[in-house]
Amino acid sequence: MAERQIERSFSEPNLRLTCDCGWDGHDDDIESWEVESERDRVVRVCPACNEPVPEWGTLRPIEGAARTARGALRGALTDSGHLPR
Fold this sequence. Notes:
85 residues; alpha+beta; three-stranded antiparallel sheet; 6 strands; 19% helix
């Protein structure tokens, strides 16, 4: 079974991510974020098992993430009510 991890490469521009479920890819493959209001953070979600993976990095506080959010992150913050539509 794979273990959640993050690998940095000096030859590639992106981080390589691995999930417990066996998914392996790059940080730019992440299209889903979970907004955890009770923890004041936003967490990347594995595209294969749909589980949040804090080991891949979290953004906190939510207010700070909202200031620079774009793409899928902005969508997640908008859907959760942290950004206006």
